[in-house]
Specification:
It is a single chain. 30% of the residues lie in helices and 23% in strands. It has 392 residues and is α+β, with helices and mostly antiparallel strands. It folds into 2 domains: 2-267 and 339-382, no CATH class; 269-335, no CATH class. A 5-stranded antiparallel sheet has the order 6-5-18-19-20. A 5-stranded antiparallel sheet has the order 13-17-14-15-16. Helix 6 (155-166) crosses helix 7 (183-198). The protein is globular and about 60 Å long.
Length: 392
């Protein structure tokens, strides 16, 4: 694994705008960064990222079955009691799921280490799936990358295939929703709608703040149409604390991601996985935080934190690093495994699972060891040889 400098495409900003990637620059700072790329060998991708992603995903899915049958585990995950039966029922009905992202610390040496699961509202999807593949094709065509250069990236094809599978499982009508003024979230939702359309599954767009509630407790669109299925790029744990979300269990709406994903989007799954698979090479030691002083060599994360917020790192050398944010409440501790610096940046590998298939990855790079919402997206390429598994 190497970080390699490369010339930018001269018209990439125009191409981004044309494709709907309007959040390539956020608050005047680059989000998409193609001044460099991360080069991997095929062995690193297949053995260190793809295979562990599939294995950890299977382990996480097995854990859901255990959690929905245990009030004690629901307590540990701080899932509100009034939503527990609804979450358990969604699992027992095997309500279908779409996608998720596993975040790994990886520098090309030794096994990748799982930092967390993003299984409810994972973002950085369009840039991982479409735009970095376009970058790869352009750079090959301009002879800046070798003709055999490839990418671990079958995300788009997997999404279209998955939506085709979901078409008979989602009660109509289907709506796609996110916060109305979030350009990034709206861009992600627009991309997913397009993937669904390519699979023959039609879905309407609605801002989540425009969803109404009928007198009989049904979720409705602006024209009072009752929503059958709702893809919502909005944290389920936040919905469950809002008055609007109190109607979820009785609303009859089928969510995508389904209610049972509330278990896997919770950082409490990290100590639960460690307890059941202690010593697994891709897991870091983890435990539920007891509120005492954070010892050296450990990281504290709230159960419901996102985008690197409210993380405290007490490294083995005694140094501290903390990030601010709005999250409080119960937390976990995870053994510190700091990201490695490459040319001043700290890359975090996001490995995508669509349905139950590990199918691609994207890399976000921050200036610190805590990957925050200000991190940059940097493309990657497989350079060493022609692939034995084809990622198209």
């Amino acid at each position: 694994m190497q970080r390699v400098r490369i010339a930018e495409r001269s018209q990439w900003r125009a191409r981004a705008e044309e494709s709907g990637f309007r959040f390539h620059t956020i608050d005047g700072l680059p989000y998409w960064d193609e001044t460099a790329y991360y080069a991997f060998t095929l062995r690193q991708i297949e053995q260190d990222i793809e295979d562990p992603s599939a294995e950890l995903h299977a382990m996480a899915m097995d854990l859901v079955e255990e959690v929905v049958g245990s009030q004690q585990l629901m307590d540990q995950l701080a899932i509100p009691p009034q939503f527990r039966d609804w979450i358990a029922d969604s699992w027992r009905r095997r309500e279908p799921h779409l996608y998720g992202r596993l975040d790994f610390a990886y520098d090309g040496n030794g096994p990748a280490k799982l930092y967390e699961l993003n299984y409810d509202t994972p973002t950085s999807l369009f840039e991982a799936s479409f735009f970095q593949w376009q970058w790869l094709e352009d750079q090959r065509n301009q002879n800046r990358l070798p003709a055999h250069a490839d990418q671990f990236n079958a995300i788009h094809e997997a999404l279209v295939e998955r939506f085709a599978q979901l078409s008979a499982q989602l009660p109509p009508p289907l709506y796609f929703s996110a916060v109305g003024n979030s350009e990034e979230d709206q861009g992600t939702v627009a991309y997913l709608r397009d993937c669904a359309a390519q699979a023959g599954l039609r879905g309407e767009a609605i801002a989540i703040e425009d969803i109404g509630l009928s007198e009989d407790g049904r979720f409705t669109a602006l024209d009072d149409t009752v929503i059958g299925s709702l893809f919502k790029l909005y944290p389920l744990e936040d919905l469950m604390t809002e008055s609007f979300g109190q109607a979820l269990p009785g609303s009859g709406v089928q969510l995508l991601e389904p209610a049972w994903k509330a278990i896997l989007s919770n950082k409490g799954v990290l100590p639960l996985l460690w307890q059941r698979h202690r010593g697994h090479p891709n897991l870091l030691a983890a435990e539920f935080d007891d509120g005492s002083e954070l010892p050296r060599g450990w990281v504290r994360k709230p159960l419901f934190s996102r985008e690197g917020a409210n993380v405290a790192m007490h490294l083995a050398d005694g140094s501290w690093q903390e990030s601010e944010g709005p999250y409080t409440g119960p937390a976990i501790r995870q053994a510190a495994h700091p990201l490695t610096a490459f040319d001043g940046g700290y890359p975090l590998v996001g490995s995508w699972v669509v349905g139950d298939q590990a199918c691609g990855m994207g890399i976000r790079e921050d200036n610190s060891r805590i990957t925050r919402d200000s991190a940059r997206f940097v493309p990657h390429a497989i350079i060493d040889q022609a692939p034995t598994r084809i990622y198209v």
